[in-house]
Amino acid sequence: MNFTMPPVSAGFNKRAGWYARNLGHDLGLIDIHGAAIAGVAGAESGLQAIQEHHPISGRGGFGWHQWTGDRRNALEAFAASLDVANYLFLIHELQTSQAHALERLKQTKTIEAATFTFISQFERPSDAQTELARALPLARLALSGLNRV
Question: Considering the chain, what is the average pLDDT of its residues?
Answer without folding.
Answer: 87
